[in-house]
Design brief:
Blueprint: H1 2-18, H2 40-54, H3 70-81
Length: 85
């Protein structure tokens, strides 16, 4: 999971950098809400960047999964990267 978490966090930092902002301290427990300083367009950019980073969009298939913290996002991308049977 550490590799996925590092990649997700670096992608979030890139969104902050694109806004000209310094990212706060980020870890698995960081809430992904307005308190982070990102708005809905920033989250859309994040999802697009994550799709480019991982090569897939887990939000495109069916119901939108619940994501509250960075660890949820990491788990979601890790789950989608595992071979399906």
């Amino acid at each position: 999971m550490a590799e996925f978490e590092a990649r997700v966090i670096e992608t979030i930092r890139a969104v902050f950098a694109n806004k000209g902002m310094q990212a706060p301290r980020l870890d698995g427990a960081t809430l992904l809400d307005n308190s982070l300083g990102l708005d809905s367009l920033d989250y859309a950019e994040l999802v697009a960047r994550l799709e480019m980073e991982f090569g897939y969009d887990p939000f495109a298939d069916g119901p939108i999964p619940s994501v509250r913290v960075i660890a949820d996002l990491v788990s979601l991308y890790q789950e989608y990267s595992e071979p399906r049977q």
